[in-house]
Amino acid sequence: MNEDFTTKWISQLKKGTLSFLVLSILKDEKEYYGYDLINEIKKKTSIEIAEGTLYPLMNRLKKEELVESKWVEQESGIPRKYYKITTLGLSTASEMKIYWDNLNTTINLI
Predict the structure, then answer these.
(1) Which domain holds residue 58?
(2) Which pLDDT score, from 0 to 100, does residue 29 have?
(3) Which long-range contacts does 27-34 make (Cβ < 8 Å, 24+ apart)?
(4) What is the mean predicted confidence (pLDDT) over 58-69?
(5) 20 to 30 A from 85, CA-CA: which of 32, 57, 62, 75?
(6) Nearest-CA neighbor of 87 among 70, 71, 64?
(7) CA-to-CA distance for 83 and 14, rounded, in angstroms?
(8) The domain that contains 69 carries what CATH number?
(9) Listing from the earlier edge strand, what are the strands of the sheet with 67-72?
(10) What would the mean pLDDT of 24-38 be, rounded to a whole number?
(11) Number of folded domains in the chain?
(12) Are 84 and 71 a contacting pair, CB within 8 Å?
């Protein structure tokens, strides 16, 4: 087994899947702040995601107009940035789900 190749492949697979996971979690139209989103990903998958990975991803999704964010003041502590999926994000997540399901079906045939 080529462990180096496998490790790199897994890393690339995770990177390509994270956008889909985040949009899928946000599509229930609940607002999440970063830490909650990380915990939700951990709860629903076996993928570990660091803040240093999530926040650049959220910035890219925001730039693509798939999510929007807002700062919310907290009674104690610093303000939190909450993320919410946009209408474009919902339709994109639906398209991604169709592709994901077709890919899974194809892979399962191998």
Answers:
(1) 1-107
(2) 75
(3) 27/85, 27/89, 27/90, 27/93, 29/84, 29/85, 31/82, 31/83, 31/84, 32/82, 32/83, 33/72, 33/80, 33/81, 33/82, 33/83, 34/58, 34/80, 34/81, 34/83
(4) 97
(5) 75
(6) 64
(7) 21
(8) 1.10.10.10
(9) 32-33, 80-85, 67-72
(10) 91
(11) 1
(12) no
